[in-house]
Automatic annotation (TrEMBL):
The keyword RNA-binding is annotated on this UniProt entry: no
E.C. designation(s): 5.4.99.25
Keywords attached to this entry: Isomerase, tRNA processing
Secretion signal span: none
InterPro entries with a match to the protein in the record: Pus10-like, Pus10-like_C, Pus10_THUMP_arc
Family annotation (Gene3D superfamilies): 3.30.70.2510
Chain ranges of the Pus10 THUMP domain: 72-149
Gene: pus
Presence of keyword Ligase: no
Domain named Pus10-like C-terminal: residues: 164-381
GO molecular function, one term: tRNA pseudouridine(55) synthase activity
Enzyme class: isomerase
Protein name: tRNA pseudouridine(55) synthase
Biological process annotations from GO: tRNA pseudouridine synthesis
């Protein structure tokens, strides 16, 4: 430290302290950058000793906030003890009067290159909290974010959501894919549903969510489905892909088995990813359909179904029209008034309407000239298409 630079800082400090009573931290903050130091408190004490001025009971600038840093850090430790994290970020809300006083002093005494008091408070909090928890500040993608409102003496902690991808299989019939929302809060989360947004767990969604609540300590699980099936449908083979975003997870470092068996479903290859794809997700499915007919069947009449292969399938949904394709059709079994067919098709084709006909052209009923009804359909393979 150059002596003349320190002497200059002392003289400038004397000018400031003639008008304002400041704590050691605020004194040091004014000159640490100029003197090439990082410990504001240590520098402030040294300058105060050299000018022989006693410490004030209350700092004009920060109102003793900096003297209570340990108290704030302890509250952050108490708040975060139930969370797993390796990175964090701190935001602060200060009283406007503190910010105004800081600006006034810096402007009045032409103190350039000094960070604002808000930045320095969060920096000091981060420094001490990181040291106590052996974690570090991350400005881009922190595991948890603290918000401290010094105006209202309120503290908030928000963990980063965890996003997973996986697949599920369903080997039993009678299990719905989606879970009804809590009827009291309509899925927003309330005391009645323990803030999960759902109050029962008797569906694919419910079982996946319950597992994630218990495993990760998450509050809610928002699932993005890749296609859908009926309650009576089974999902076999490699399973149906899905994405899930976990809200307010308490745990992050969880070992996940490649196959997780739940009550009526299995979850396969569940793993964390950075984000849910924002583009439209396309997929193909291989589906086994059981179809009943109004009139008797002749085996040769089913040959016409081969014409569906690579033929554009037009789907009319009132306000929009869409076209999909069927890639393969294979008749597996024929009875008097029913048959079983295996089809490979684009995701998004309404299976039952492909059979019976409303707003889907061409359809099986029209091709056979026989009124058809899909009794069940099961998914044997589902693949994502890039």
């Amino acid at each position: 430290m150059k002596e003349n630079t320190l002497d200059q800082a002392i003289e400038e400090t004397k000018q400031i302290l003639r008008e304002y009573r400041l704590c050691d931290y605020c004194i040091g903050r004014m000159f640490a950058s100029k003197l090439g130091l990082v410990s504001y408190d240590t520098l402030g004490k040294k300058i105060r000793t050299m000018i022989k001025q006693s410490r004030p009971k209350s700092c004009y600038l920060c109102k003793n906030l900096m003297l209570e840093i340990d108290v704030f850090v302890q509250k952050m430790l108490d708040m975060s003890k139930e969370y797993e994290f390796s990175t964090f970020l701190i935001g602060a809300i200060l009283q406007p009067s503190i910010l105004d006083r800081d600006d006034t002093i810096r402007s009045k005494f032409k103190l350039k290159g000094i960070a604002g008091i808000k930045s320095d408070i969060t920096r000091e909090l981060g420094k001490q909290f990181g040291k106590r928890t052996r974690t570090k500040v991350d400005y881009q993608n922190p595991d948890i974010v603290f918000t401290i409102d010094f105006k209202k003496d309120q503290y908030d902690i928000k963990p980063k959501s965890i996003v997973l991808e996986g697949k599920y299989t369903k080997n039993n019939r009678g299990i719905p894919q989606k879970q009804d929302s809590c009827n009291r809060c309509d899925g927003k989360g309330c005391f009645a549903c323990d803030f999960h947004g759902i109050s029962e767990f008797n569906s694919v969604e419910g079982q996946i969510a319950k597992f994630l609540f218990e495993k990760f300590g998450a509050q809610q699980a928002k699932i993005t489905w890749i296609g859908s099936e009926d309650d009576s449908s089974m999902v076999l083979g490699n399973g149906r892909p899905f994405f899930v975003k976990m809200i307010n997870p308490h745990k992050r470092k969880i070992h996940l088995q490649k196959k997780i068996k739940l009550d009526n479903i299995s979850i396969l290859n569940l793993k964390p990813i950075s984000r849910i794809p924002t583009d439209q997700i396309k997929f193909r499915a291989t589906v086994l359909l059981e179809i009943s007919t109004e009139k008797d069947l002749h085996p040769d009449s089913l040959n016409v179904l081969k014409s569906l292969q690579n033929m554009p399938i037009s789907i009319d949904e009132n306000s929009w029209k869409n076209q999909k394709k069927i890639y393969d059709v294979e008749v597996k079994k024929i009875l008097n008034r029913s048959f079983v067919v295996l089809v490979e098709l684009d995701g998004g084709i309404p299976i039952k309407r492909l059979v019976s006909g409303p707003n889907v052209e061409p359809n099986i009923s029209t091709l056979l000239e026989n009124s058809c009804h899909c009794t069940t359909f099961d998914f044997h393979k589902i693949i994502l298409v890039k």
